Structures are given as structure tokens and as C-alpha cells.
């Protein structure tokens, strides 16, 4: 099965700007991408990274083909779905994902298999219905279920905490420190990030 991993190489994770500079956001986003590639590779799938700019990092280029496409996410993915080939799409900001999570997606025989994010987005999906097209705006999980229903396509939802945990906001970094085991967690620790429990709800802080 074809696997596509969209990646915003030039301006990643803008909502992390309160904590991270552009250079740091690029480094952290690449570390998360490396974790996703670990999971996909262990699951026995050869991925292609659809990147908004070139990538010069051996953790990526040694394990995936990289195609530069600066179109917005929906257009870039839909352009590749027109050939009708069964396709797995996995977001690049899922640092907790493991190979068995990928296996649950590809083992499904549904026309459309979706792993929703906590906020109602679509963190991963498998498309086996040739007429299906993605739309990643807003609550895309609901939109994708509706689009599949309009086509009469069978839908399966994969309920997985690890697939649901994407990193967009500073508070999301706590999940990486608590549950992460890969490159993204290593990057946070190396750069002085630690859990902050002083305010009751667990957050992160950057030490000296």
C-alpha cells in the first residue's frame, strides 16, 4: 500500500511560536517526522514524504522518498488520490505512533479507515475508494465520514490514543514527555524541556 506523509518543512508548527524559534520548530518537527517514519518502517511500509521544501536530514532521507510539493495539504493529497491507488495518509506530527497502530489502519478492509485526532481532525486514514477526496479543513473527521457516506463507502474508525495525539499547542508537549520514547522526546529533553505540575494541570517548562 502506498503511504503518504505530508510535512510542512518551511513553516512547521506555528502555534508553538511562544516556546520555539523557527529553527527549533523545524528541528522538533523533523524529530516528530522521524518518529512517524520509525513506526511506518517497522510496519513494513515504504513511505513517501510530501514536503513543502527539501529536507536534508538522514533520519528522513534514508528511510523515505521525499517529494517537494508546496501546495496546501488538501490539494497535495487529492492530486495523488486521482489514480485510485489504495493510500495510507499519516500526519507527520504523531510522535507517539507505533507500528501496531499503523497495522490497525492498513489491516482494515473498510473503504475508508480513519484515525481521528483529539480536536476532531484526521490524523491518519486509509483510502480504498477511488472516488474519495480529502478535505482537511475544520472538523475533518466528521467531514470525511460524511463524504464517505455520500459515496456509499464503508467507514471504520480506529480509536487510538497514540494516533489521536498530534502536537500543535505548547500544552501538547507534555504528552510527548510523558508517553514518548523516540526522537521527539529526546529533542525536548536535550533542549531543557521538563514537566511543570505547579499549576495543577500538567504542562511543560524550559529549564536553564
Description:
The chain is of the alpha/beta class and 208 residues long. The protein has a single domain (2-164), classed as Spore Coat Polysaccharide Biosynthesis Protein SpsA, Chain A (Alpha-Beta Complex), CATH 3.90.550.10. 35% of the residues lie in helices and 20% in strands. It has helices at residues 22-42, 58-61, 73-81, 99-107, 140-150, 161-164, 173-179, 183-190, and strands at 2-7, 47-51, 65-68, 87-90, 112-116, 122-127, 155-157, 193-196, 203-206. α1 (22-42) packs across α4 and α1 packs antiparallel against α8. The longest helix is centred in the N-terminal third of the chain and has 21 residues, at 22-42. It is globular, with a radius of gyration of 17 Å.
Amino acid at each position: 500500500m502506498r503511504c503518504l506523509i505530508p510535512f510542512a518543512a518551511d513553516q512547521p508548527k506555528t502555534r508553538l511560536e511562544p516556546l520555539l524559534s523557527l529553527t527549533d520548530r523545524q528541528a522538533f518537527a523533523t524529530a516528530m517526522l522521524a518518529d512517524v517514519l520509525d513506526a511506518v518502517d517497522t510496519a513494513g511500509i515504504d513511505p513517501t514524504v510530501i514536503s513543502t521544501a527539501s529536507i536534508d536530514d538522514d533520519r528522513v532521507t534514508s528511510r523515505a522518498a521525499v517529494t517537494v510539493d508546496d501546495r496546501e495539504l488538501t490539494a497535495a493529497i487529492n492530486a495523488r488520490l486521482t489514480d485510485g491507488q489504495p493510500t495510507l495518509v499519516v500526519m507527520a506530527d504523531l510522535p507517539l505512533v507505533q507500528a501496531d497502530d499503523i497495522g490497525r489502519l492498513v489491516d482494515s478492509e473498510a473503504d475508508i479507515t480513519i484515525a481521528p485526532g483529539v480536536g476532531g481532525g484526521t490524523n491518519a486514514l486509509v483510502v480504498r475508494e477511488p472516488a474519495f477526496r480529502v478535505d482537511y479543513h475544520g472538523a475533518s473527521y466528521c467531514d470525511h465520514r460524511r463524504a464517505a457516506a455520500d459515496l456509499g463507502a464503508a467507514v471504520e474508525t480506529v480509536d487510538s490514543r497514540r494516533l489521536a495525539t498530534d502536537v500543535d499547542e505548547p500544552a501538547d508537549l507534555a504528552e510527548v514527555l510523558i508517553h514518548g520514547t523516540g526522537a521527539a522526546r529526546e529533542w525536548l529533553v536535550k533542549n531543557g524541556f521538563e514537566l511543570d505540575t505547579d499549576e495543577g494541570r500538567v504542562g511543560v517548562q524550559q529549564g536553564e
